[in-house]
Structures are given as structure tokens and as C-alpha cells.
Specification:
The protein has five helices and no strands. By secondary structure, the chain is an all-alpha fold. The chain has one domain (3-113). The two termini are 26 Å apart.
């Protein structure tokens, strides 16, 4: 893996981690801006607790080494969360605000596509027990 690809992976991953961590903290502390936004989108107050905990778990999974299967779930969960946020803003008539989450989605896609083989579920490295075996 080239140094440039590794750098792109870590910058994108840390960006997603930072955004999700800040969002999770705002949700878990029931920050007025977060609660106002969730109410505007039609979500109940308890949803912020679920969202906050899930985001913190996802960030930990993305950053910890050696749990490739869980990383796949974290990427999927973040993708669903981010696209749902964008769609919710769109349906509530928020105009261009609906595009804002897509910046994080682009970083998530970049992180996923640039990740090193050691962080993928199907690791092509020799001796990996979970890599597909040749037929």
C-alpha cells in the first residue's frame, strides 16, 4: 500500500470519526442544537441516546485494529445514518442543508475504498484464516 493511499485513508477515517464523535456527544448530552434539529426532523427525544451510543461504538470499531467483520458493519451503519440524515433534511424542506451530510458520506466512501488490506474482511494476506481459499 502506498504512503499516499495510507494517508488518504487515515485523513478520511479520522474526519469521519471526528464528525461522528462530535455528533454523538451532542446527542448523548442532549445539546439544545441537536435536540432542536432532531425535533425538526420529526424524531423523538429518546432517539438521540440510541444515535449517540451507536455512533460512539462505530467510531471505536473503525479505529481499532483486528475486527474486520465489525468494521464492515460500522461502515454500513454510518452509511445508513448519514444517508438517512440527508434524506430527512431533504423531506423537511431544508434545501441545501440536505447536502451537508453527503460530505461526511464522501469521506466515509473514501475511507472504505482506501483502507489497507489488514482492515478488510477478505484479507488477501497469506495465512489469513478468513480470506477466500483458491478453488
Amino acid at each position: 500500500m502506498t504512503k499516499t493511499k495510507t494517508t488518504i485513508y487515515w485523513v478520511a477515517t479520522l474526519f469521519v470519526g471526528f464528525i461522528m464523535t462530535i455528533s454523538a456527544i451532542l446527542a448523548l448530552t442532549h445539546a439544545p442544537t441537536m435536540m432542536t434539529a432532531l425535533a425538526h426532523l420529526g424524531y423523538p427525544p429518546y432517539f438521540s441516546n440510541l444515535l449517540g451510543v451507536a455512533k460512539l461504538i462505530g467510531v471505536c470499531v473503525l479505529l481499532v485494529h483486528g475486527i474486520a467483520r465489525l468494521k464492515e458493519w460500522a461502515y454500513t451503519g454510518f452509511a445508513i445514518t448519514i444517508l438517512s440524515a440527508s434524506y430527512s433534511h431533504l423531506l423537511c424542506g431544508d434545501g441545501f442543508l440536505a447536502l451537508e451530510p453527503l460530505i461526511t458520506f464522501a469521506a466515509l466512501v473514501l475511507s472504505y475504498t482506501m483502507r489497507p488490506p489488514s482492515r478488510t474482511f477478505f484479507n488477501p494476506a497469506p495465512g489469513n484464516a478468513i480470506s477466500p481459499q483458491p478453488v
